[in-house]
Amino acid sequence: MKKSEHRAGMIEKMSHFFGGNSFLKRNFHVKCLIAAAVVILSAFRVAAGTIFLDWKTDKEPVSYRVNEPIVFNIQAMEDGKPAAGKTLKWRRTGDDGQTADGQGGNDRPITIKTAMNRPGFVRIEVEVCQSDGAAVKGADGKALKFEGGAGVAPKLLKSYPEPADFDAFWEKQKARLAAVPVKAELVAAPSANSRFDVFDVKVDCPGGKPVSGYLSIPKGAKTKTLAARVSFMGYGVDSACPEYRDGELCFAINAHGIENGKDPAFYQALRVGALDFYAFNNRENAKPETSRFNGMMLRAMRAMEFVESRPEWNGRTLIVSGGSQGGFQALNAAALDRHVTKCEVGKPWCCDLGGVKLNRIRGWRPDWENGLAYYDPVNQARRIRCETDIYAGLGDYVCPPSGLSVLFNNLKTVKSITYAQGSMHGYDLPNPQTQTFR
Questions:
Q1: CA distances from 265 to 12, 149, 238, 262 (A)
Q2: 3-class secondary-structure state, position 81
Q3: Contacts of 265 (CB under 8 A, 6+ apart)
Q4: Engineering a disulfide at 119: which of 111, 153, 262, 373 sits with its beta carbon 3.0 to 4.6 angstroms away?
Q5: Which of 183, 195, 235, 233 is nearest to 213 (CA)?
């Protein structure tokens, strides 16, 4: 896919959902997802009020069998009541390649019936319209759209074969890391919480850029008394944001080894310059050594080593967490560092990159190149030994639920995945229908 097409896809599918330093709260915090200046709301606001969809399937949404009928019941709600005079236009696609569309509503629920002849996910896109067919627009001026779906035999989904030299490649990267001592520079930084000390940290790392982030420590913490957490940021070019958690030593790093705490113009210059569409260069991604993800994952491993060197760490509990690209980094870190005891990820990015070769719906992600397979979390999943919790959106087609299901299937440890109906990449329905597998 061309760079301009990727940019258009990002703007259309993502930019009005996320805030650059927003938190999406579900089972865990999803931090700094992408650099778009909007606030995540509990529902979409329009001039008349707050509109969302009451969206249910006739049984648990990820429990269907191949060729079993799937029934969606969907109604537009406005300020908590059935929306008057609204029509719902819908489109059905899915991992089976089938399509259908229709419309209905006018104060009543619509019912959509479908099925899948193979394991995978059905995707339902719904646009809210006035009774005359004119699109209802949100506060951003865009047509008000929701997405959801259902899963069919997701436990049968398998990943594209991993590279034969996968482990050998990562042993080489660990040797590169070991050749550079863990040398850190800490500078006291302002704290938004008087109970914590905060430091702007740089840690030496191979790959051309240091680890760069904020370390937060509860005041007066004694030696070997704190759990440790490393949190990772989503797609974008921004400063890291300090995290404050009682009983935890928190190291929140930015994705690029860049300076923290600079003015907005500094990050904007990088977004349109050196880091413009940094993950989408096909030539760089053809080989694992030249992908931008190489330096990113070296920094992730070095961040782990840094927190493990801190005297406050209790030597037992080490958590990694993040959403979107942050989840992508956290999963890689959990696979590459045996000290990690828990991995918490929300809608992690770039899972099942080879799924496009198996005819699954493509998310918003780089083109398939051989070098990316070494960073795909579904391949790393087989090496993860810690407890892992995943949060997935049935309407998230930045990070499709099929890829997160493959991730879950490949994990060989204590694990859970929660699917949320109507949950898109930067949006969750109020009180959504959910299903959890453990």
A1: 24, 40, 11, 8
A2: strand
A3: none
A4: 153
A5: 233
Q: Token pair of 111, please?
A: 């019912």
What is the C-alpha to C-alpha distance for residues 376 and 350, in angstroms, rounded to an integer?
6
Side-chain half-sphere CA neighbours of 55 within 13 A: 27
pLDDT digit string, tens, across residues 274-305: 999 999 999 999 999 999 999 999 999 999 99
Cβ pair 340, 315 in contact under 8 A: no
Q: From CA 167, how far away is CA 156, in angstroms rounded?
A: 25
Q: Which residues contact residue 178 at a Cβ distance below 8 angstroms, ignoring those fewer than 6 apart? A: none
Residue 4 has pLDDT above 50, yes or no: no
Q: State the DSSP H helix or E strand holding residue 377, giving kind and residue range, or none if neither.
A: helix 377-380
> Of how many residues is the chain composed?
438
**388-406 pLDDT, tens per residue?**
999 999 999 999 999 999 9
Main-chain phi, psi angles of 407, to 5 degrees: -55, -50
Residue whose token pair is 């259908």 = 100
Q: CA–CA separation, 121 vs 235, rounded Å?
A: 25
Average pLDDT, the chain: 90
Euclidean distance between CA atoms 22 and 241, whole angstroms: 10
Reported as a single tens digit per residue, the pLDDT across 26-62 is 333 333 333 222 223 346 776 557 899 999 999 999 9
Q: Which two tokens stand for residue 130?
A: 């006035």
Phi first, then psi, for residue 401 (nearest 5°) are -65, -25
CA distance 126 to 129: 10
Amino acid at 170: W
Domains identified in the chain and CATH numbers: 45-156 (2.60.40.10), 166-437 (3.40.50.1820)
C-alpha span between 268 and 304 (Å, rounded):
28
Burial code (b: 16+ CB inside 10 Å, e: under 16) for 76-104 equals: bbbeeeebeebbbbbbbbbbbeeeeeeee
Question: Does residue 159 register a pLDDT over 90?
Answer: yes
The contacts of residue 220 (CB under 8 Å, 6+ apart) are none
Query: 292 exposed, middle or buried (CB, 10 Å; 0-12, 13-18, 19+)?
Result: buried
H or E element in which residue 395 lies: none
- How many CB atoms lie under 10 A from the CB of residue 117? 12
DSSP-assigned letter for residue 222 = P
